[in-house]
C-alpha cells in the first residue's frame, strides 16, 4: 500500500518548560515530537533568560520549521492554553490591532508570535489542547524532553526513522517530510 504524502497528517506534540520563571536566571527548554504515521522526529532546545510562554511558542515554531513541505495538514497537540488560544482566538485580532491586545497594551512575545504567524500561513493546522501531566504518552514525552532541555540535557537533535541514526540525520523513505532544524540550541558541556 502506498501512502499519499500529500494527504498524510503530520502530528506535532509540543511543550515548554522554564525553571525560575520570571527571573533573570530563568532557564527554559522546549521540545517538539513530530510524527507522520511512519517516521518520528524529536527536537528540543534551550534558552536563557526566558519564560515558560516563550518556550511553549518556541516548541511550536521549531516543530513547524522542521516540516519540509508547505501546505501540509498539521495537527498540533499542546497543553498550553496560551499557545492554543493565541493561535485560534487572539492572533487575528492582534494583527488587526497592530499587535496590540484588546486593552491596548502590546502583545507579549510579539517577535515569536509574528514568526509563528508566518509559519502558520504555510499549512492547514488543527490545534488540539491536551491536559498536561494527565498521562497522554506523547505529551508526557514532550514534557520530559522540554524539562531535560531546561536543565541543559538532551538538547541535541535526534531523528527516528525505524532506527536511531546520527544526530541530524535526514529521514528517508516515502514519509520523508521532516527537515531537522539548524541547531539553535545551547548545549551544556
The beta-strand count equals 6
Tell me the domain tally.
Answer: 1
Reading off the top of the CATH hierarchy, the class is best stated as: Alpha Beta
User: What share of the residues lie within helices?
Assistant: 25-40%
CATH fold topology: Nucleotidyltransferase, domain 5
From the alpha carbons, calculate the radius of gyration and give it in angstroms.
16 Å
Mean pLDDT score: 82
CATH superfamily: Ribonuclease H-like superfamily/Ribonuclease H
Put simply, the count of helices is 4
Top keywords for this entry?
189 residues; alpha/beta; RNaseHI; nucleic acid binding; single chain; Nucleotidyltransferase, domain 5; disordered C terminus; 6-stranded mixed beta sheet
Amino acid at each position: 500500500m502506498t501512502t499519499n504524502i500529500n494527504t498524510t497528517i503530520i502530528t506535532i506534540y509540543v511543550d515548554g518548560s522554564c525553571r525560575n520563571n520570571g527571573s533573570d536566571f530563568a532557564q527554559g527548554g522546549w521540545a517538539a515530537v513530530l510524527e507522520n504515521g511512519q517516521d518520528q522526529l524529536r527536537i528540543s532546545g534551550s534558552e536563557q533568560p526566558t519564560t515558560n510562554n516563550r518556550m511553549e511558542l518556541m516548541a511550536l515554531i521549531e516543530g513547524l520549521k522542521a516540516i519540509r513541505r508547505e501546505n501540509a495538514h498539521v495537527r498540533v497537540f499542546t497543553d498550553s492554553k496560551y499557545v492554543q488560544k493565541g493561535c485560534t482566538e487572539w492572533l487575528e485580532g492582534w494583527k488587526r490591532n497592530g499587535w496590540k491586545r484588546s486593552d491596548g497594551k502590546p502583545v507579549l512575545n510579539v517577535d515569536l508570535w509574528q514568526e509563528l504567524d508566518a509559519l502558520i500561513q504555510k499549512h492547514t493546522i488543527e490545534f488540539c489542547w491536551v491536559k498536561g501531566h494527565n498521562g497522554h504518552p506523547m505529551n508526557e514525552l514532550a514534557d520530559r524532553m522540554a524539562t531535560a532541555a531546561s536543565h541543559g540535557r538532551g538538547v541535541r537533535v535526534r531523528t527516528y526513522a525505524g532506527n536511531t541514526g546520527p544526530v541530524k540525520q535526514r529521514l528517508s523513505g516515502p514519509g520523508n517530510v521532516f527537515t531537522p532544524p539548524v541547531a539553535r540550541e545551547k548545549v551544556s558541556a
